[in-house]
Amino acid sequence: MYPTDPTQHVSHETIYTAIYAQPRGELRRQLIACLRHGHNTRMSRTRGTDRRGQIPDMVSIHVRPPEIEDRLLPGHWEGDFVKGAGNQSSVGVLVERTSRLVLLAKMDDATAASALAGFSAKLNSIPEPLRQSFTYDQGKELTRHQELAAATGVRVYFCDPHSPWQRGTCEKHQRLAAIILAQRNRPLGLTHRTNSMLSPTA
């Protein structure tokens, strides 16, 4: 209602909190039905065990050049994992920060070896001028980040622990990828149609 007045804006967390604070009844059900996930109760945003200190020689997002943060030039990517049931299958999600182009990398499992192979193959399929950096969370699947950098020529940066907003572009599309893949009611994997649904995107 007030697109040009920042003082009238609220965050998505405020909206979610207000909806789930509603007493049980028809209004609450209608509001929850409008949400993307539609859970009856608010789901925890925690990510389980603290994984800090498990990845050697990480380069912090805080030393990332300003042009990456400002999205001035293409070629800077954010990454994440979508894991299947029991971690038996995984898909890597890559989002280019300037164009919001989304690419998916099929992987055999959630191991560091699969992440190295999957992300390397997908990044190397991108023209060299358009693969400059790769920002990730501190998931242990990227333990072999130095090998990834050597194989692809990208600079790898790591977010602070429990800070998904530092990869906000990828965080949004990772959730969409998980929803689409789950709705297809099949083992986690890729098809041409699934890839076309996600790439490119606004």
From TrEMBL:
Database matches in InterPro entries: Integrase_cat-core, RNaseH-like_sf, RNaseH_sf, Transposase-Integrase, Transposase_IS30-like
Domain of life assignment: Bacteria
Name this polypeptide is given: Integrase catalytic subunit
GO molecular function, one term: nucleic acid binding
Signal peptide: none
Domain Integrase catalytic: 70-202
Species per Swiss-Prot/TrEMBL record: Caballeronia telluris
GO terms of biological process kind: DNA integration; transposition
Pfam family, one: rve
One CC-aspect GO term: cytosol
